[in-house]
Amino acid sequence: MTTKTSAQPAIGNAKMIIGGEQVDAADGQTFDVMNPATGEVLARAPLGGPEDVDRAVKAAQAAFEGPWSTWSASKRGRTLQKFSNLVKQNLEELAQLESRNVGKPISGARGEALAVSLVFEYYAGAANKLFGETIPVSRPGLDFTLREPIGVVGLIVPWNFPMNMASWKLGPALAAGNTAILKPASYTPLTAIRLGELALEAGFPPGVVNVITGPGGTAGAALAGHAGVGKVAFTGETTTGQEIMRLAANNVKKISLELGGKSPNIVFADADLERFAAESPLAVFDNAGQDCCARSRIFVEASVHDKVVELFTEATRKVIVGDPSQDATQMGSLISERQRERVIDYIAIGRDEGAELVYGGEAPSGEVFENGAYLMPTIFDAASTEMRIVREEIFGPVVAIIPFSDEADAVRLANDTPYGLSGSIWSRDIGKALRVAKAVKAGVLSVNSNSSVHTEAPFGGYKMSGMGRELGMHALELYTEVKNVFVDLT
Ligand code: NAD
Question: Which domains are seen in the chain, by residue range?
Answer without folding.
Answer: 12-259+465-485 (3.40.605.10), 264-454 (3.40.309.10)
